[in-house]
Amino acid sequence: MLPQMFVLSLLILATSSADLLQNADFESPPTNLPKRMRPPFLLSTENNIFPGWTFEGKVMYVTADETISLPSNGHAVLLGEDGKINQTFITNADYMHYVLSFTISPDGQNCSAGDVVVSAPDSNGVFSLKQHYGKEVWQSYGHYLGSWDKEEPVNLVFQSQTAEFNSSPICPPVIDKLLLKSMPKPVQDNENLLLNGGFEYGPEFLNKSTEGILIDQAPSPVQSPLLEWSVLGTVKYIDSNHFFVPQGKAAIEIVSGVSTGIQMAATLVEGSTYNLEYMLGDANNSCVEDFVVEAQAGSTGQNFTLPSHGTGSAKKFSMKFKADSSVTPISFMSYKKSQTKDGVLCGPVVDDVVLRNHGFKPYMQWKFLVSLYLLAILNVQ
Ligand SMILES: *[C@@H]1O[C@H](CO)[C@@H](O)[C@H](O)[C@H]1NC(C)=O
Ligand SMILES: *[C@@H]1O[C@H](CO)[C@@H](O)[C@H](O)[C@H]1NC(C)=O
Ligand SMILES: *[C@@H]1O[C@H](CO)[C@@H](O)[C@H](O)[C@H]1NC(C)=O
Ligand SMILES: *[C@@H]1O[C@H](CO)[C@@H](O)[C@H](O)[C@H]1NC(C)=O
Ligand SMILES: *[C@@H]1O[C@H](CO)[C@@H](O)[C@H](O)[C@H]1NC(C)=O
Ligand SMILES: [Ca+2]
């Protein structure tokens, strides 16, 4: 039981850092807003102070209405021509990974939002509003900001990339609902050689949103909002409050279709045989399809099929392989585009990826670890 308690106590460290950011939902209005005028309000550096934020260029304070739809019908910030806002937060713990969730909406009904650049001292991401990835007009994204020690100032900047909004298909982006999460490096438990195989370390979910969080292409597993995994194409990070999730509180839905998935690099013993196990399922989001997921470990690959009725189900699959090298890439890919009847992109759910030495017996390993622990205690005394 000891290792389990250890893992649990470390998991508790993976806390949301919502209060690191001030006015992260933009509900504290700028000062000196005109009393009897309806929003949107154009902010000016001479007249307005925006709690928590510095702004530059064309920035407007907006309210959800017929043209702007927001996750919780409150207020948000529109980034017009050269519009930019920034805030500096101070990191609060040693060596933590910081991952941001935020939403983008278009300022209008029949247009798509212009690009938003999100930057921090060591990272930079460009986001455009993706259509058909959810039922809402807005969309939430997850973004890796960086890893820092305690008490470092981090300047977080949101910037509109479009210099002019004269053509109607592209309208200014509106951003809202920033959620900052700090996480330690995932811990290895003795039953799984992979870190974050259950996908519990990822961007924060919006409380009430049924939309999940989109994760765009993240080529490097060390700069990914899904800790330890790189992302190819676009995947959706889904929560157990709003989707069917095979294990724990979160899983990955491979949504973008052609050559999309996740990959990680496992450090293995060359020539040894391993067993890769995972759950394949559907998110209970009306995605009716014969899902095919290709699991690949080094040069060993296999396609697994799961017929989905879209009502929430999962099945465990496994694959045996021999490590061809000490660093073995392990991936789960989907090559097919699937859609619900309403035209929302959807796909197979992958969760609970477990890698073990072939022939490994968890019980024996436990006993071994406990006796090691006891030995250590005896040695200390
Ligand atoms: C915004 O960034 C500028 C530097 O570009 C900095 O001087 C300013 O303090 C930042 N504002 C906040 C609120 O962190
Ligand atoms: C958006 O498009 C719909 C149909 O395509 C149209 O009925 C509506 O008037 C348009 N709205 C605006 C604000 O242009
Ligand atoms: C989630 O919702 C509850 C109740 O509506 C609220 O008290 C809490 O602050 C919310 N948490 C976040 C992170 O938004
Ligand atoms: C799995 O299926 C895809 C698409 O049909 C194919 O390209 C790929 O080679 C298959 N992978 C394996 C390991 O058979
Ligand atoms: C799927 O969602 C429906 C509600 O939309 C719920 O009643 C049902 O229990 C869910 N199924 C699973 C397997 O979670
Ligand atoms: Ca999980």
UniProtKB/TrEMBL annotation:
Q: Where in the cell is it found?
A: Cell envelope; Secreted
Domain DUF642, residue spans: 19-181, 192-355
Q: Which UniProt keywords apply?
A: Glycoprotein, Secreted, Signal
Q: Which InterPro entries match?
A: DGR2-like_dom, Pectin_Meth_Modulator
Q: What domain of life does the native source organism fall in? A: Eukaryota
Pfam families for this protein:
DUF642
**Any signal peptide, and if so, which residues?**
1-17
A GO CC annotation recorded here is: extracellular region
**Primary localisation category:** other
Gene3D superfamilies found in the cross-reference section: Galactose-binding domain-like
Name recorded for this polypeptide: DUF642 domain-containing protein
Q: Which organism is it from?
A: Ficus carica (Common fig)
